[in-house]
Structure formats: structure tokens, C-alpha cells
Amino acid sequence: MEIVNYSDIPLSPTLIWIKRQLDFDQTRKSQPALMISEATIDTQVNSLDPANFEADLAEFAEAQPHLMDYLTNEENGAFTTAEQELLLFAGLVIYRSVGAENPVIEIMEGPQIAELEEKNFSLLQEQKARSFRDRITVFFDKSDQEDLLAFIEDLLLDEENTDVTAEGREPLFISLKTVMDVLLLATS
Hints:
The protein has nine helices and no strands. It is mainly α.
């Protein structure tokens, strides 16, 4: 009888994702988390030049094509133009902030992105609170990325930013929280 060495069998992207999820869940509590600080986020916001925004987005799209597809898909067509621009801006800031702390970010596939989005959406739907801020408190309670979440929250609740509609606020939050989760998972 021949002994099969299963480590020599190539894994499909889905199996690799499942293994990564299991490994991530098993080691999450024992490994120090990659903390993205407010200073890192501020540095990335301040380093963006409107004249180079398209080039920065192109770099992001090249490095994370499926994540850029997620940010620009037709489902986001329900957002206003200003909300779509905010989504791209914030997604780029999150990408660059995570990259500043860990320059090795694996490319994530569409199914993994969809799974993380569904987890975030389900968690939000379970919340009984009425106000947006109260509904997203659970995400702060379950994450060690308080500064990134605060960045997202501040963008969506900024009183000077009248471009975010009440209808768009929660979907924008879920989209940006998903970007954050995907990128952090891609660095683990």
C-alpha cells in the first residue's frame, strides 16, 4: 500500500481559503494583532494627493484586483456619486494604512470577500439599536482595530460631510469594514 503525502497535493483557492480561515481562527488569540494606529491612518490621508488619486487607485487595483472589483461593482450603484467617491477614498486609505504596517498583503479572491461581507452584514442585522452609532458598537467590541473603525465611523458621521445619505451610511460602513477585514486577513 502506497502512503499518500497530502501536503504534496495542490489545494484549490477555496481550500486554501478554508485552511487560512481555520489557521487564522486558531492562532488569532495567541498572536499579537497587527494594530493600525491613528497616526498611520493620518499619515496615509495626508499623503494622498488629489492629482495622483487615479494613479493611486490603479496601484490599489493592481495589488488587490478582486477588492477593487468589490468596491466598484454594480451593487454600489445605489450609492450617490459622492458616496462612491468616499468609498474609493476610504478603501484606498485603509489599503495604504494596512500596507504601511505590513507591506506583504496577499491577493484575496471574490468568495472570501463575499463571506466576510456577509458576516459583517449579519452582525449588523442582529443589532436592535436604532441609531447608527449604537448599531455599530458591536464591531468595536469585537475588533482590536479601534482606530480603523473610528476612521470609518468619523467619515460617515462627519457633520460637515453632508454627502453621506442616511440610506447609504450602513452599506458604506459594511463595505469599508469588509475592506478592512479582507486586508487584515490577507496579512496574516
